[in-house]
Specification:
By secondary structure, the chain is mainly beta. The protein contains 1 helix and 10 strands.
Length: 134
C-alpha cells in the first residue's frame, strides 16, 4: 500500500510502500519510553521504498536488548518520531511510525510483540468513559 506522511509541524515529509498485513504494536519498554506512550504502532516499509521528500530529520541511535543498533529518526523541530531503521541506512527493515502516516485509518495492527512488557491497564480501555473532544 502506498502511503505518505509528515511530522506534526510538516517540515519532514515522506512516502513509502508499506506491508499493511504486518502492521504491529510493540509493547517493549524502549518503545514505551521513546513514544512517550504505552506502546508504539509500526508499519514496515517494503525494502527500498521509504523516501524522505522534505526536511532534515535528527537521528538517535538506540541499542536493543539484543545489542543491535537501530536509528530512531525524528523531527528536530516538533519531536515527532518518523521511523526507525538500520544505522547508516541500507535496505533492511524500516519501521514507519503509524501516527505520522496520513492513511493511518487504513492500517489496523495485525499483531502485538513484546507483550511481556505491556501495561496491564490496556485491557481496561474499552470500559473507560469516551468523549468526542476534550
Amino acid at each position: 500500500m502506498r502511503v505518505d506522511g509528515a511530522c506534526h509541524c510538516g517540515r519532514i515529509t515522506y512516502e513509502a510502500e508499506v506491508d499493511a498485513d504486518n502492521v504491529l504494536i510493540c509493547h517493549c519498554t524502549d518503545c514505551q519510553t521513546l513514544s512517550g506512550s504505552a506502546f508504539r504502532t509500526v508499519a514496515p516499509a517494503l525494502p527500498g521504498t521509504f523516501r524522505l521528500l522534505t526536511g532534515a530529520p535528527k537521528t538517535y541511535i538506540k541499542v536493543a536488548e539484543s545489542g543491535v543498533e537501530r536509528a530512531q529518526v525524528f523531527c528536530a523541530d516538533c519531536g515527532s518520531p518518523i521511523y526507525s531503521g538500520p544505522v547508516g541506512g541500507g535496505s533492511s527493515f524500516v519501521g514507519i511510525r503509524v501516527g505520522t502516516i496520513r492513511q493511518r485509518d487504513r492500517l489496523p495492527p495485525r499483531k502485538q510483540v513484546w507483550c511481556r512488557s505491556a501495561q496491564g491497564w490496556l485491557q481496561q480501555l474499552s470500559s473507560l468513559e469516551k468523549l468526542q473532544t476534550q
